[in-house]
Amino acid sequence: MTMTVLWTAMITISLAAGLEMGRGPEVAAAALEGAESAIKLSLSIAGMLCLWSGVMEVMRRSGLADRLSRMLRPLLRLLFPDVADDRAAMDSIAANVSANLLGLGSAATPLGLEAARRISRKGPPGTASDALCTLVVCNTASIQLIPTTVASVRASAGCATPFDILPAVWLASSLSVCVGLLACRLFARLWNDLPRPVRPSLRREVPHV
Amino acid sequence: MSETLFSMVVPLVLCGVALYGTARRVDVYDALVRGAGEGLETLLRIVPALVALMTAVSMLRASGALDLAAAALAPALDRVGLDARLLPLMLTRPISGSAALGVGADLIATWGPDSTVGRTAAVMLGSTETTFYTIAVYFGAVGISRTRYAVPAALCADLTGFLAAAWAVRLCFPS
């Protein structure tokens, strides 16, 4: 429904604004050109998109994602302290994050949803726990190492070095992810509406009865 | 040195993945071809949305409404180092991936892939995600209605991504 509202608003605003500013004919021509340029764009990025999906499948089958997720585990333990003792949940979080890093979009979502299901089992029903909010923010921030779609768009516009933006992309993505995670930590204190879960480190200090 | 390295990223990754896969006894060619087929399916899924959204975006641009909105917000955006021409991209990015791709491709084609606007658009597309869509998918899948601070935290990340994209392009490509 969101897209229906958005699309209808865009069309209505362009028609009204175009007529108001005496640019009716331009709007009419643009309606046809837009559809055509969508197909042109799709065709020009198709080759790169297919090639890269193939490379991803090779990465997946050769276990590159598994390897990466093992390397990420210590870091993720720090980001998800509330579920650090749940091995299965940490496994799916690590798999989700590494799939995102490698740009395996179609694999990342099911893994992330699996992680979300495992995390939400521990939290209060119907309410997002701190760990779940962190997982969602990790997935709404882009951490893809090689943004191939946008590179192929640049290449199709006649750019000779479509990947020269990589350092800038890495810089911007890491800043964005860091701020997102910091915001999670900060907001977790402000939204102090959930009982604090018992951290594994605290649990160990409780003597056995 | 780094420039040639980044221009060689595709052949390097291709070769590296092929060698690694072969060493791990993966049928590399079969995986490559099957994966490419999946890529085609992905593309087919986004083409209809691209047609609908690029039509709307190109109408919006031709009508002059975008220029009007950009002109109104230019002073405020300028203060934080953002070009007003990037406004449509920043507005669509959190809502729809296809719309943002269409708007971004339009900016890149209009102003040139190596212009500051074109580069910033590309970095914005590469360093942010379709926030609202992702949030809807995740919370919908596990039946969560009280999302607490997930939306504001994710939007903080998006806003940082936009500002950082403009800053990183200025830093990496001083003109």
Topology (elements, then pairings):
The complex is a heterodimer of chains A (about 210) and B (about 180).
Chain A: H1 2-20, H2 24-61, H3 64-79, H4 87-101, H5 105-122, H6 130-140, H7 148-156, H8 166-190, H9 200-205
Helix pairs in contact in A: 1-2, 2-7, 3-4, 4-5, 5-6, 6-8
Chain B: H1 2-7, H2 9-23, H3 28-63, H4 65-79, H5 87-92, H6 97-111, H7 116-127, H8 131-141, H9 150-172
Notable features of this structure?
heterodimer; A: 209 residues; mainly alpha; 9 helices; B: 175 residues; 79% helix; 0% strand; globular
Gap between N and C termini of chain B, in Å? 20 Å
Tally of discrete structural domains of chain B: 1
Which structural class do the helices and strands of chain A define?
Answer: mainly alpha
Low-pLDDT residue spans of chain B:
none
**Strand tally of chain B:** 0
Shape of chain B: globular
List the secondary-structure elements of chain A in sequence, H or E. Answer: HHHHHHHHH
Shape of chain A: globular
How many alpha or pi helices of chain B?
A: 9
Please report the number of helical segments of chain A: 9
Radius of gyration of chain B: 19 Å
What ranges of chain A have pLDDT less than 50 throughout 5 or more consecutive residues? Answer: none
Helical residue percent of chain A?
over 70%
Oligomer: heterodimer
Write up this protein.
The complex is a heterodimer of chains A (209) and B (175). Chain A has 209 residues and is an all-alpha fold. Chain A has one domain (41-197). Chain A contains nine helices and no strands. Chain A has helices at residues 2-20, 24-61, 64-79, 87-101, 105-122, 130-140, 148-156, 166-190, 200-205. The N and C termini of chain A lie far apart (55 Å). By secondary structure, chain B is mainly alpha-helical. Chain B has one domain. Chain B is built from nine helices and no strands. Chain B has helices at 2-7, 9-23, 28-63, 65-79, 87-92, 97-111, 116-127, 131-141, 150-172. Chain B is globular. Classes of the chains: A mainly alpha (209), B mainly alpha (175). The interface between A and B is large, with 103 and 104 residues.
